[in-house]
Amino acid sequence: INRLASQIRLGLLVVQPDTIDFFDRQLAAPANIWVKIDVGTRRTGILPTDEATLETVFAKIERAPRLRFRGFLAHAGHTYAARSKAEIQKIHEETTTILKDLKARYRARFPDLEISTGDTPSCSVAEGWEDVDEMRPGNFVFYDLMQVQIGACRPEDIAVALAAPVVAKHADRQEIVVYGGGIHLSKDRLTTAGGQACFGWPVRLNANGWERPDGESFVKSLSQEHGVVKCAPAFFERVRVGDVIGILPVHSCMMVDLFARYVDVHGGRIEKFVFGK
Amino acid sequence: INRLASQIRLGLLVVQPDTIDFFDRQLAAPANIWVKIDVGTRRTGILPTDEATLETVFAKIERAPRLRFRGFLAHAGHTYAARSKAEIQKIHEETTTILKDLKARYRARFPDLEISTGDTPSCSVAEGWEDVDEMRPGNFVFYDLMQVQIGACRPEDIAVALAAPVVAKHADRQEIVVYGGGIHLSKDRLTTAGGQACFGWPVRLNANGWERPDGESFVKSLSQEHGVVKCAPAFFERVRVGDVIGILPVHSCMMVDLFARYVDVHGGRIEKFVFGK
């Protein structure tokens, strides 16, 4: 972190006052401190009503010569449980109200403080970003079936697919098996309207990306290395063992982490960026 | 595959007759062919009753000069749905009966044919391996919570844990947050007796491995990079932000794939074997 802090304008996230003591002892270069606020996700963060803890944080930052209070940061991860634009909008309004109230309360003391938020569902469809200084969506780079289910994007916005070879066809159960399992797609899943688990959608890969063969075929189960695709009749008839089909992921962030590089639609290789490699 | 086939005694798995034509055209070195039998998992494999397809397979192998029929192979993956030794034993008996019947039926024609099976639950607790020529368990190397739930091992048999730093404590909800999420543990999960999702058990790491602080604390949710651990009171009181705790995985195979190397209890590094690297 000291190497990074000497090269870039580093922002560090704090959720506990003690962490500031640690940074004060260990950091050799200046850094900005963002205070993480729990806006309802209940994962990490200081509750916006917990003024005593916020005061402890400010006091500790003020005593640390290399640290500067930068502002309040949130991740409204509970939008992932939303299933419509209206639900996302409601969470977004609660989130921005909390952050704007904090900004208003402490602006006299810290004139430059900023507020930062930005889960992908809110950044995709919510209205009302006045006074928000920074957005931080990540999943929007590729989108995925989870974002479709939430209502954050349309299926045609999904910009990444797993290339999976078909290794078996089973006519009696209208299923194909692909080489492509939890090791490649991650075990993230959706529950379909019919109550079944869905681990992805099979698509046909083409020179421009992909096209969905129908609205019924889906990946019904994943083992470690393999996936079982329940197929609509027309798709089943056309697909052959040895074909490479695409699988649209339920959660693109988890899937792309499992590969060292991507291949674009023209066959070009895109290496992943790894800091310090 | 040609490079491998020229260096080792290579066994290839076949689930469709057409694949043998492909091997015959492409393989430059000799190889053994195992025929995958579906013993009830319904993922891949030829049904043991499908004599016509088996005959097609044998005929194609006989016409391929570099291919030799080696035997029948199965993976009784449906033992993963078992929840007791008796259930595992029942599936194991069905599996071995199917394979032994096939061996008896075709032994006159292929005197050297062997049968191979070996899901981890069966290999761990099932009795009756006479006439089975090869066992192939994989998960038993480390075991995990899934195998505990199936009844294949005891908790103290689990030989791998994720080292996860504690990044936040939340006294109001008796939860800690660790740096260690789906990216590290995979999203495999169990359902607890109380109907809750469980993504792992927190343990204390020590010089000999790990010890479980209590029977109640568990990982209740995973996001991409973080896990939320619901803690029993004594564990919550003792754990501090900055501590590195262990997380026993739900599925060790999926977890270990996510790391480049392991660290043993004495601090030694164990690199993963990657063929051709």
* Main beta sheet strand tally, sense and closure of chain A: 7 strands, antiparallel
What top-tier CATH class of the largest domain in chain A fits best? Alpha Beta
Oligomer: homodimer
The helix content of chain A is 25-40%
Q: What is the chain-wise order of helices and strands of chain A?
A: HEHEHEHEHEHEEHEEEEEEHEHEE
What class, by secondary structure content of chain A?
alpha/beta
Summarize the structure.
With 277 residues, chain A is an alpha/beta fold. In chain A, 29% of the residues lie in helices and 26% in strands.
Descriptive report:
- The structure is a homodimer of 277-residue chains.
- With 277 residues, the first copy, chain A, is an alpha/beta fold.
- The first copy, chain A, has 2 domains: 2-137, Alanine racemase (TIM Barrel, Alpha-Beta Barrel); 155-271, Lyase, Ornithine Decarboxylase, Chain A, domain 1 (Beta Barrel), CATH 2.40.37.
- Chain A is 29% helix and 26% strand.
- The first copy, chain A, is built from 9 helices and 16 strands.
- The first copy, chain A, has helices at residues 2-7, 17-26, 51-63, 85-106, 120-125, 145-150, 182-185, 233-238, 252-257; strands spanning 11-14, 31-36, 67-73, 114-117, 134-135, 162-170, 175-179, 190-191, 197-198, 200-206, 209-211, 218-222, 226-230, 244-249, 261-263, 269-271.
- Chain A has a 7-stranded antiparallel β-sheet. In chain A, strands 1-2-3-4-5 form a 5-stranded parallel β-sheet, with helices on one face.
- In chain A, strand 10 (200-206) and strand 11 (209-211) form a beta hairpin.
- The first copy, chain A, is elongated and about 70 Å long.
- The model of chain A has no long low-confidence stretch (mean pLDDT 95).
- Chain A binds chain B through residues 15-16, 18-19, 22, 42-44, 77, 167-170, 173, 177, 182-183, 186-189, 221, 223-224, 226, 228, 241-242, 253-254, 257-258, and chain B through 15-16, 18-19, 22, 42-44, 77, 167-170, 173, 177, 182-183, 186-189, 221, 223-224, 226, 228, 241-242, 253-254, 257-258.
